[in-house]
Each structure stands twice: as C-alpha cells, then as structure tokens.
Specification:
28% helix; globular; Heat Shock Protein 90; 4-stranded antiparallel beta sheet; alpha+beta
Amino acid sequence: PVWVAAQAQHVSQILWNLLDNAVKFTPDGGNIAVEVGRQEGKPFLSVKDSGVGIPEAEIDNIFERFYRVDKSRDRKTGGSGLGLAIVKRLVELSGGFVQVESRVGQGSTFTVVWPK
C-alpha cells in the first residue's frame, strides 16, 4: 500500500478531475492508465492518456483558473477550465506538487507527488 498525508476527499477530487480530463480528451479506442507508487521515496499518483495532448506553449497556463487550451471546443469536452486549477490547489494544500508531460497527438501524463 501507498499512504498519502492528505485529506481523503482531496485525493478523491484530484483523481476524479484527472480521470475526467483523460476521458474527455482521449478519443474512442485510446488508452488511459492510472499508476500509484513511490518516486524517490515519495508517494505519487499518475494518470496517463493517449489523447490529443497539450501544445508545449500552453502547458504553463493549464493550471490557471478558467484556462482552456482549445477555446473552440464545445461544452461537452471543453469544461469550465477549473479542474486542473482545483487539482493544483488541493495538491499544494497537502505540501505536494503536480507535473505534466504532454505531446500533441500522443497524449498527456499528469503526476501528483506528495511529501514522504
């Protein structure tokens, strides 16, 4: 088991928001993987998808409130732009951090790392 020093409700909301984005932005037939483990002794949660990916120029902005990479998307996939801002805030409240790796057309990996 991997134990995290964070409120259970926060961990649940973080996972929900990351999975919701992965589902929204991964086309039918794509893949989504969730991994939980330890990275350099610290607990982590990772959500990886084979979705549309995020342009490199946009990555610094995706955790801002109301920010949406593709403003032309409809409400079905576009959302409000709050999910990743909520993720970042909840992770920071527990002393952790969130990072993202992404390539357009190949997908994204969001990794949350908490303190030991």
